[in-house]
Amino acid sequence: MADDTIGVRPFTLMEIDHDRQMVQRSYSNMPEADPVSGEKPIHDNHWPGDVRNRYKTFVVNSIEEIAEVFGDHEQIQSLGCESYINIPVVIEG
Length: 93
Description:
Layout: H1 2-6, E1 12-17, E2 22-28, E3 39-41, H2 46-53, E4 58-60, H3 63-69, H4 73-78, E5 84-86
Antiparallel strand pairs: 1-2, 2-3, 4-5
């Protein structure tokens, strides 16, 4: 439905492994480009504090803002994204 309404590019669900300081993709609507098994490290910037510690929605509206927090910004841009939103979902605390 979101794809019909706003034209979703990559849509993924990521799980945070706090012990390993990694995020792992558990769903992808573009598995060829963004495979479900994909992992990436959590970088030391404001993203982890906002999303995983304070459970705040994270929004950036340009590729430059994406590049400030995600090392794979070139891959993100190659998939047609120049804005990004993370909505944290917390289970059992």
